[in-house]
């Protein structure tokens, strides 16, 4: 959900079982300032959620979607911090340098831009209210920029 949907760590921590609308193929995201937004749930993300619910999630009556993996089972009380630690730990287990959770959100934005989407689409995906916020996520791809740049007049 972090790397595929560009969700913030706090949004993932707040997800509840009832936020997933399987019939509509949507998920309700509780964003900043208590905003609730419905976003599409891609089939690959839905498949991963089903696998987690069937095989990974402890059998508890807790409404939170993601629970701690060890007893006492319950919501990720550390919220965004707990999810950040999980991401860092997973990246290290995979033999990668430590990855911060927010980097995944930046990666989603960069990949969507590289695929040719306009900045407005990235802003919508990341649920930004201000265009200026989205611009910060638009990392410069210097190689693609060189392809677009025209030579300076009089230069070889």
Walk me through the structure.
The protein has helices at residues 2-5, 9-14, 43-56, 80-93, 101-114, 119-126, 131-137, 142-148; strands spanning 20-21, 26-30, 36-40. By secondary structure, the chain is mainly alpha-helical. Strands 1-2-3 form a 3-stranded antiparallel β-sheet. The longest helix has 14 residues, at 43-56. The chain is elongated and about 70 Å long.
Please give a quick description of this structure.
With 156 residues, this protein is mainly α.
Topology:
Layout: H1 2-5, H2 9-14, E1 20-21, E2 26-30, E3 36-40, H3 43-56, H4 80-93, H5 101-114, H6 119-126, H7 131-137, H8 142-148
Helix pairs in contact: 5-6, 6-7
